[in-house]
Design goal:
heterodimer, A: about 35 residues, 1 helix, about 85% helix, B: about 550 residues, mainly alpha, 21 helices
Chain lengths: ~35, ~550
């Protein structure tokens, strides 16, 4: 896999990972259901 | 009078007009300091991004990308944007919960400590005054280059603009103009990219030409230009630099006063979290546009000197004059919005934290804040007119100093039950001076520090060690313990299930945008890049 392809995947995946972290955080602290 | 001058005048007039409109609505101290604590998500996203970018993004980082280091800036952005989420989840929402009017006041209340509030306030007055100086120079340079008026006159125009605006309108005006400016420079950056790429022959042609660009080999490879003519000898050197600086600036994003103080204006904790998600998405997209656009300017002119004026050159030479004028106005807008945020924070902290005026004497406190803003702003003006211009170094020093001095104390103030008042005070002080000492060492002795000894990180480690050592030798008071306990009690109004469901949409949006980004960057960058390299190889392989 080329470095450029890894950059493309890595850059987008960082946003995915911090999105999942936020989703977890919001559910943990604010979910009353 | 050319289109650029007219555009600049209009943007400054709009800026002052919004300030006048916002200033008329100020009735209470809270309106002036924290915009009535009622700001919705869009305004907080706008002010977070606009305060962070300043002129550095469109001058310093554009220059770096034009020279061939854009990919490293993209990697750095990928890391430092995590600071938005970590900052909001682990510090920002607790800051909002504390309902103080400044961040130093939060530290003072958390540790029941007047001296800590004064210290944090002083770091703002000193650090942000330096940053304000750098931004003043940056905006003035743009005005000078575009209009041809003298540098001194340009400094006076920029200074008058942000001082009059901030003094009158306070936070109400700052978040409004920040959001207008954020919208302006995001849209105008997209328009600029279109014209720059069009001048290079279209999107795929530009990518393929840059992939095999001989004047700056590797300009859009994953590591950018490396080797003897670069700051980085190998791709690994560049990667390590980008990751470490990304972490350091991530801490700046998470705890610096010009970012976290925005959360004090948010309508609720949910707005804090949503706006952090929005800011992260906006920065992820915006930096792709500016770094690639700056690299592609090379296809039209590879000899712009200094490289920092590449975007201004593009505005004046590659774009229709009206679009170019809007781009220049956008760059000036980015600088002015940061300047007004910095000046407002300096004024608030000087009055509320350093002098600790009586909150009950509200009209007097408001007047004193305005007088102090003008006084400090005058000192910045005198410095801007008399000191030698060194935007890069001052920005490099003044921004990250907060990561070193505030980082450890901010997170531990929420999450550690062992950190004591003395540890917070000495930790903040040690981080501040540790950072300055390492910066001065590198500057005076002309030493190029290895990236892992970056002053931001060294200062942060010094602060952490100090906090741990002093905490072990002192004890937590009842008041500190009680305050921290209360901080971890979620207010009932934040447990509304409708708000909760709405907030969950934002991280979902991040996940979707993240996956779309993988597809888009692969299709529009990685694949055509590889195709161009394969084409060269097959030509070379022919006998």
């Amino acid at each position: 896999m080329s470095g450029e392809l890894m950059l493309a995947i890595g850059y987008g995946l960082v946003l995915v990972i911090i999105g999942v972290l936020t989703w977890w955080g919001v559910r943990k602290y604010y979910d009353q259901g | 009078m050319n289109t650029f001058v007219i555009g600049m005048i209009i943007s400054i007039l709009v800026y002052l007009g919004v300030g006048w409109y916002a200033g008329r609505k100020i009735k209470h101290l809270d309106d002036y300091y924290v915009a009535g604590r009622n700001a919705p998500t869009f305004l907080i996203v706008g002010t977070l991004v606009a305060s962070f970018l300043s002129t550095n993004a469109f001058i310093g980082e554009v220059g770096m990308s034009y020279r061939g280091h854009g990919p490293l800036i993209v990697i750095m952005t990928g890391v430092n944007c995590c600071g938005y989420i970590i900052g909001a989840l682990f510090f920002g929402r607790f800051l909002r919960r504390a309902k103080t009017i400044t961040v130093p006041e939060f530290f003072g209340q958390r540790f029941n400590s007047r001296r800590l509030q004064v210290l944090a306030g002083l770091t703002i007055v000193v650090g942000l005054s330096c940053y304000l100086l750098a931004v003043t120079w940056g905006v003035s340079l743009v005005i000078n280059q575009v209009t041809g008026i003298s540098y001194t006159a340009a400094i006076l125009i920029a200074w008058f603009g942000y001082t009059a605006f901030t003094m009158y309108s306070g936070s109400q005006g700052v978040i409004l103009t920040d959001t207008i400016m954020f919208t302006l420079f995001v849209s105008v950056a997209l328009v600029a990219l279109y014209f720059i790429v069009d001048a290079g022959g279209g999107w795929f042609a530009s990518v393929q030409q840059l992939a095999v660009y001989e004047a700056k080999p590797g300009i859009i490879s994953w590591h950018g230009v490396v080797g003897d003519n670069s700051n980085w000898q190998t791709p690994t050197d560049g990667l390590i630099w980008a990751l470490i600086l990304g972490v350091a600036w991530g801490i700046v994003v998470a705890v610096s006063p010009w970012q976290t103080s925005r959360y004090l204006m948010a309508k609720s904790e949910h707005v804090v979290i949503r706006s952090a998600c929005g800011a992260a998405i906006a920065m992820f997209l915006l930096y792709l546009v500016t770094t690639f656009g700056a690299a592609a300017i090379n296809l039209s002119n590879p000899d712009i000197d200094p490289a920092e004026s590449a975007m201004i050159w593009a505005a004046m030479n590659l774009m229709p004059s009206v679009a170019g004028a809007i781009l220049v106005s956008g760059i000036i807008a980015a600088g002015l919005s940061s300047a007004s945020t910095f000046l407002s924070l300096i004024g608030f902290s000087a009055t509320n934290d350093v002098l600790n005026t009586d909150h009950d004497a509200k009209p007097q406190q408001l007047s004193l804040t305005r007088y102090l803003m003008v006084g400090i702003s005058l000192l910045v003006l005198i410095s801007a007119l008399t000191l030698p211009n060194n935007i890069f170094w001052i920005t490099y020093f003044a921004g990250p100093v907060f990561a070193s001095s505030w980082g450890v104390v901010a997170f531990m103030s929420v999450w550690s039950s062992r950190i004591t008042e003395a540890a917070a005070f000495w930790g903040m002080l040690a981080g501040f001076f540790g950072n300055i000492a390492f910066n001065l060492l590198a500057l005076v002795a002309d030493i190029k520090l290895p990236v892992y000894l970056d002053p931001i990180l060294v200062g942060g480690v010094i602060s952490l060690i100090t906090v741990l050592v002093v905490s072990s030798a002192s004890s937590v008071s009842k008041e500190e313990h009680a305050y921290r306990e209360a901080l971890h009690t979620t207010p009932i109004e934040e447990l509304d299930q409708q708000q909760f469901a709405l907030t969950l949409r934002w991280p979902k949006a991040m996940v979707i945008v993240g996956f779309l980004m993988v597809l888009a960057i692969t299709y529009f960058y990685a694949l055509p890049y590889q195709e161009a390299l394969d084409g060269i190889k097959s030509v070379q392989a022919q006998p």
